[in-house]
Each structure stands twice: as C-alpha cells, then as structure tokens.
# Entry
Amino acid sequence: MSDTTLKTPLKVAILGAKGYPYVYGGYDTLVKELGERLVKRGVEVRVYCHRALFPKKPPMVNGIKLFYTPAIETKSLTQLSHSFISMMHACLSDVDVIFVVNSGNGPYGLISKIFRKPTAINVDGLEWLRPKWRGLGSRYFKFASRLATKFYDRIVTDSDEMQRIYQEMFKADSTVIAYGANPANHSNPELLKKWNLKPNEYYLIVGRLVQDNNADLILGGFQKSSTDKKLVIVGDVPFEDEFANKLKNIKDERVLFTGYVKDTEELKSLYNLSYAYFHGHEYGGTNPAMLKALGYGCAILALDTVFNREMLQDGKHGIFFQKDFDAVKDCIHKVEQLPEKMETLRNTARSGLTARYNWDNVTEAYLQLFLELKKS
# Structure
C-alpha cells in the first residue's frame, strides 16, 4: 500500500484515550503509532490528553499538538467526563475530522452531529460483556455502542469478527482497520537476570489483571500442572482491586508477578525468550498483546475464541485451550512434550503479521477514511 501525499491541509483531532505520549493500553498505542505517522504525512494532529496524568504539559511533542482537558476523577466517570469535555472543545475548533476511540463515547456523536463535524469512532471490543461492567455499566456500554452506530459518520472495527457482530447486533456497517505491530528479531537474555529467569524456562502472561483477561484461569490451571517451569505475569491494574489482589496473594514459588514492565527492551526479551505466551483475553477484537507476541516470536497458547482464532489464522500460529482449569493443565503437559512444535511456532510467529497488522498500512487506511470524511 503506497503512502498518500496530501495535496490540501488536513486537521484531525483524536480523543477518548489517555493522551500522548502516554502508553498504557491498546488505545494509547493506537494514538501514538497513528498520530506520529500521520504527522509525517503532513496531517495536523491534535490529541486530547487526560490532564491529571501529565505532570508536565508541553503544547507539542513530536509534531503532535496536545490539549490537556480535565475530568471528574472517579473510577466510573473519569473517562466519560474527559471525553465529553474534549469533544466539546474539538467541535468548537477548526479541525476537519474528529476521531474518537472507545464505544463508551458513543453518545457524544450527537454533539459532533449538532456541530456538523465529520467523525469516526473505533469501537474496539464487546465492552458490555466484560465482567467489570456488570449491571448498569454493561447496559450503558451496550446502549452507548448502539448510539455510536447512529451518531458517528463512520464506525471502525478492528477485526472481521467484530465487523460481523456489529452488523448482526446493530445492523451497522463498519470499516475494518486492525491495530499494527512492531516486530523485532532480537532480545537480550541478560535482561532476564533481573527476575532470575532463564530462556525457555517460563510461561508468560501480559495484560491487565482484570477478569476478562483470565489470568486466574491460566494461573489455576498452571498450579494444577506438574511443570517445573515458571509462570511470569506482567501487568497490574492502576487502582486498588480485589480480583488483582487475590491473584497477587497466591503463594507458589513457580509464579512471578513483575507488575508493569515499562522498559521496551525488557518486555521484548520477556516475550521472545519465553517457552510460550499464554493469551487469555476473551472479548476484544485485534489484541495488541497478541500482536506483540507474534511480532516478538512467541509460541502462543490462546483461549479458544472467535477473535483469537482470527488472529492466529485458525491455529496456524498458535495452540488453543478451552476455558477450564484442566484444559490449561493439559495444554501445559501437551506442549512440554512438543518442543519441536513450539520451536516451529516461535520461528514462524512473525509471518502471522499479515499486511493488515502493519502500522504503515493501518495509517494509510485511516488517512483514506479521514480524507473521505473531510470531503463528505
């Protein structure tokens, strides 16, 4: 896919994530990778940042204009209030297109409609099914996702399966644009000494310690196994949480919680030198942690979901397990009898990053979308 050269100015506002260059989750990664590439193609990019997360507030970083908007600082209202204020500011500005992430921001498309600002929204996963949003939260996300399909000019889904679900549930068409990956062919075994680890002697989990990522399922199955390898769990939650605390209080000398690993080289080495990477994410579409696992050359063991099957090409680039402790245990015992199979998966993992997971191609797809919106 060739890069588009802009003949006329294009101003794009991005909101709904934590900001730039803050990188904590998938949306923040999207903002960073997409924003930086759009700037190089001549787009004026404005990113709305969550004011409380940025002690220093430079007006511009790497050519991206930054706006620091406030929020009501409570667990349930922080993101929504920040997006509301950001949307109002963007609609009152001279931007050509507003790009929003997170289906929870669905109702705010009404604001952009009133101001006649062209908009697109990346709706991500099935938020209403996530255990943390039981009850009112679940109903809100389903309601917000439906409104997103009514108010925004274009809906972006990140996988074919998510596109199908939005068509079936909401009778809404969407454009599929996946997340990208940054593959790497090298790692440093010396960096593992920080945790007293050895290459190929541990399994790896990377992700937030929330219920829908199923670290408890994998950990429970691992504890039932007889493996002498370790289980390394990278990640945490940025708030006090009963589920995360219960996991971290488990006593097993084979289990290691690292917390967040912010050093890119350390994280890359943890991925690349693992015996296998466990992926328990259940409700998303294209998952950034899975893309890292492919790009860093991991043998992948994944929960059997339609989204994970799509990403791993129905088993070409991974092995699936069911949502059951014994299934995890049996999977561990099985793969430890298949070292040649695991080595093959590691050697071929990067070939699973098809053109749709290339950040330059992702950027080109978004740029075409924004140009179409500007003309509409």
Q: What stands out?
A: Residues 11-180+358-375 form a domain with the Rossmann fold fold (CATH 3.40.50.2000). The longest strand covers residues 44-50.
